[in-house]
Amino acid sequence: MELLANALNAESVIEGVETLPILDAMRALHLDFIQGYAIARPMPADALMAMVVQGYDLPEGSAKHPASLLGAYAAHLLRRPLMDALRRGWIDISVTTPPPCPLVAFLREHGAAEDHPIVAAHHRLVSVKSNPEQGYLDQTLNHIETEIQELVREAIHLEQRE
């Protein structure tokens, strides 16, 4: 929907942003506008005006530095087209070095070792993408991305239970 809104030079509003991890993911995806309990509960207009005048700060996190695993995964997904373009040779890698993956950076900041399942799967993903001799291995890449998706989903469910 966001791509369609951008193509039409329109702004979009994402509703139902109820939790801080979802807010973090919306930031990581650089969405135009968001609405939901993660920002504020419904309130009378005078309370809203008081909140605005007092200077309301959104909860921690930013598009460049996600504060949750969901936000880091959203930032990782946003980079997929760039990584595909690099792998296919559409962008000269000798001219630019992509920044580190936000998902792996988040996990390392939170103490994940190199043998962490998501980090290990990401290393396999990068090795496939960075080896031009392996050709276009879209099925392998999709399989590894699906594995990462499942590992992230499991980790988020574990976080929610704790």
Structure notes:
This protein has eight helices and two strands. It is mainly α and 162 residues long. It folds into two domains: 53 residues, no CATH class; 93 residues, no CATH class. The protein has a two-stranded parallel ribbon with strand order 1-2. β1, α2 and β2 form a beta-alpha-beta unit. α4 runs antiparallel to α6. The radius of gyration is 19 Å and the shape is globular. The two termini are 33 Å apart. The mean pLDDT is 83. InterPro entries: EAL_dom, EAL_sf. This is EAL domain-containing protein.
Keywords:
162 residues; mainly alpha; two-stranded parallel ribbon; 8 helices
Chain-wise SSE layout:
Elements: H1 2-7, E1 13-15, H2 20-28, E2 33-35, H3 45-54, H4 69-78, H5 80-87, H6 102-109, H7 117-129, H8 138-161
Parallel strand pairs: 1-2
Largest sheet: 2 strands, parallel
Rg from alpha-carbon coordinates: 19 Å
Beta percentage is under 5%
How confident overall, as mean pLDDT? Answer: 83
Helix content: 40-55%
Strand and helix order: HEHEHHHHHH
- Total number of domains: 2
**Which structural class do the helices and strands define?**
mainly alpha
How is the largest sheet built, in terms of strand order?
1-2
Q: Which consecutive residue ranges, at least 5 long each, have pLDDT under 50?
A: none
The global form is globular
Helix count equals: 8
Domain EAL: 1-56
Protein name: EAL domain-containing protein
